[in-house]
Amino acid sequence: MQPVAILPAEEYAVRRRTLLERLGADAVALVPAAGETLRNRDTHHPFRQDSDFQYLTGFPEPDALAVLAPGAEAEYELFVRERNPEMETWNGRRAGPEGAVARYGAGRAHTLAALDERLPELLANRKRIYYALGRNPEFDRRVLGWLERVRARSRQGVRAPVELCELGTLLHELRLFKRPAEVELLRRAATITAEGHCRAMQACRPGLYEYQLEAELLYTFTRSGAGWAYPSIVGGGDNATILHYVENNAPLRDGELVLIDAGCEVDGYCADITRTFPVNGRFSGEQRALYEVVLAAQHAALAEVRPGRPWQAFHDAAVKVLSEGLVELGILQGDPAERIADESYRRFYMHRTGHWLGLDVHDVGDYRDPDGQWRALQPGMVLTVEPGLYIASGNQGVDERWWGLGIRIEDDVLVTADGHEILTAGVPKAVDDIEALMRAAR
């Protein structure tokens, strides 16, 4: 097994230099790390770094603050927890200011105790402050406090910033376009996740519980040095018609389908795969018919994923095929174009066909251009393509033979110079291929 990839320090330095250039000489950016969150009493949730902070620093500890000040003596400063032998004995090693400089590329580093003294100096004579406005009320209050301390020095000729700007307008556009090192991490996450899905397919039997398939996924992730990117969805039968089903505690019944939506995370980068397959290893006639509609919709959508095509194009392609298939199967009536126009297809397909993917599962980046038009796809963008159909039991006006069928097929896709690359091709999705994989494990 290849070791989990870790991005080199120079990768983060390149990102910071790019952002510094976009900030301009009269601005400063403040990027806080995530904090720890209590799960119950003195037990914390597993720490996961803030994605913006991770993107720029790679620094793995909570409560830190990165300051980027173009033209300053040290354009990149880090404020971090102090070294504390007693706390490190209980909770693990800390880098401290020395480690922040030596291992994480900070031009200068301080303990958190220096924030209130040092920040007003860094903000002085800058025109704009960029940070994530409104995301953290406590941090908002601290920024305003530092700003007030700069204003108090106006009689000394010190100018205070006059604009508070949303950092995401600059940083998230950078994050949208994946650099080669990022693509490699996304490929690694996709490979591990595909292995987990295949393992779950092969382990599946009637009488198991949903959580037992989830365990196969989590085992694969952990064995490969990865973590989970989001809580896994493992929905058998009617549970597959619940889009964000996470209970994962029901038995898997003979003759039903099971939908698994799960992905791992490697060095912060996420995979997001969905596959739907029969619990007993063989699709019934109705299951196969509806599944083939969804698969055809995904193929049509993928054909639209290439440079120059608008974001909306692959969603429209999927909706067209899904609507035609629903009419052909008698689940919808009338002309497919009319069913698209009146959106009656949304009764069975209520979500969009994809989202950006990267350090966040639903990654940052605008879907429309400044004129309000759907933005054109460009090389380096990574997105999911995930059409589905969901017919819950009791759905009025639908023949009962379709009840309890929830089907989604999702892949992670990199836009390339001449089309696209499916990063998650390692897990089968054709009916015959799924059945063959499951049959081989029996």
How are the SSEs ordered, and which strands pair?
Elements: H1 9-23, E1 27-32, E2 38-40, E3 43-44, H2 51-57, E4 65-68, E5 76-80, H3 85-91, H4 96-102, E6 108-111, H5 115-123, E7 128-131, H6 137-151, E8 163-166, H7 168-176, H8 180-203, H9 210-223, E9 227-228, E10 233-236, E11 257-262, E12 264-266, E13 269-270, E14 273-278, H10 285-302, H11 311-328, H12 336-341, E15 382-385, E16 388-391, E17 405-408, E18 411-416, E19 419-422, H13 431-440
Parallel strand pairs: 1-7, 5-6, 7-8
Antiparallel strand pairs: 1-4, 2-3, 4-5, 9-12, 10-11, 11-14, 12-13, 15-18, 16-17, 18-19
Helix pairs in contact: 5-6, 8-9, 8-13, 10-11
Name a few traits of the molecule:
single chain; three-stranded antiparallel sheet; 19 strands; six-stranded mixed sheet; 442 residues; alpha+beta; 13 helices
Descriptive report:
With 442 residues, this protein is α+β, with helices and mostly antiparallel strands. 36% of the residues lie in helices and 17% in strands. It is built from 13 helices and 19 strands. It has helices at residues 9-23, 51-57, 85-91, 96-102, 115-123, 137-151, 168-176, 180-203, 210-223, 285-302, 311-328, 336-341, 431-440, and strands spanning 27-32, 38-40, 43-44, 65-68, 76-80, 108-111, 128-131, 163-166, 227-228, 233-236, 257-262, 264-266, 269-270, 273-278, 382-385, 388-391, 405-408, 411-416, 419-422. The strands form six sheets. Strands 6-5-4-1-7-8 form a six-stranded mixed beta sheet, sandwiched between helices. Helix 8 (180-203) packs antiparallel against helix 9 and helix 10 (285-302) runs antiparallel to helix 11 (311-328). The chain is elongated, with a radius of gyration of 25 Å.
